[in-house]
Design goal:
alpha/beta; 9-stranded mixed β-sheet; two-stranded antiparallel ribbon; 9 helices
């Protein structure tokens, strides 16, 4: 699989910390950065072709990642790539995943991997991508989405806007048949972790069609209207995750490390 990470997706949730950096390069547990967890999870599962699609305040991230040597990503083929705005023809400051993916379509078409993993960097987690990929292949799904059964954090409801979309699912078995956007339902929900596995050719086709229609958001504009057309499977994650959705959650998750 090919890994694609969006390091800026939830910058607006912690505005005090992202004046000169992005969410992905925020320190976590003192010696780490948030991006380290997603990057290490991918490389530990044998994913050695990873791209970062950034849009602003990315210099601290580039300084931290360097050539990717610490993750064994210094390679002639694959390895670590960072795509800042205007670095190539067609690259610009994107509004949502559709824009971001459309700007690297030529690169996507040149890759050899059959599957693509899409992820953000607002969750510190040790994630087994191999198990999720095996489940995706076994189910024959068009798209597999990682989710966790939990209550929607109050901060996500309070701070919701179009730069902080979150998604919950109604499911029939493992199949997702309804996607709710910025739901305020109480109680335990199937809350998306914004980690997706999708066939590369399928992704190229859908992004191309969505971009020419002026669509912006992958989940809202492509997945949500097509739950009856696409086979969208859910993959439940039962492990521990530190979901950063405001300053308080960032502080609390760091303090939990003392225990």
């Amino acid at each position: 699989a090919l890994g694609l990470v969006f390091p800026n997706s939830y910058d607006a949730t912690i505005p005090d910390l992202v004046n000169v950096r992005l969410m992905a390069s925020i320190p976590f547990a003192s010696r780490y950065r948030l991006i380290d967890f997603m990057l290490s999870s991918m490389t530990n599962c044998g994913i050695d072709n990873i791209s970062m699609i950034v849009k602003n305040n990315y210099h601290s991230l580039m300084d931290h990642l360097g050539s990717g040597r610490e993750w064994d990503l210094t390679r002639k083929n694959g390895g670590l790539s960072i795509y800042p705005p205007y670095s190539e023809k067609g690259m610009k400051v994107y509004a949502g995943r559709v824009d971001g993916l459309a700007s690297i379509l030529p690169t996507l078409k040149d890759q050899k991997e059959k599957y693509v993993i899409l992820a953000d960097s607002n969750i510190a987690v040790n994630f087994d991508f191999k198990a999720m990929l095996d489940a995706h292949i076994a189910s024959g799904a068009d798209v597999t989405v990682a989710y966790a059964k939990e209550e929607i954090p109050e901060a996500m409801i309070k701070n919701q806007d179009f730069s902080n979309l979150y998604f919950t699912f109604r499911m029939d078995g493992n199949r997702i048949n309804k996607i709710y956007i910025n739901s305020e339902e109480k109680g335990v929900q199937n809350l998306s972790m914004n980690i997706y596995i999708i066939d590369r050719e399928f992704l190229i086709k859908e992004i191309t069609a969505a971009f020419v229609r002026g669509y912006v958001y992958f989940e809202r504009d492509i997945l949500a209207p097509n739950t009856d057309k696409f086979n969208i499977q859910g993959y439940e994650f039962n492990g521990y995750k530190a979901r950063i959705c405001d300053m308080k959650s960032y502080f609390d998750e760091n303090m939990k490390l003392l225990d």
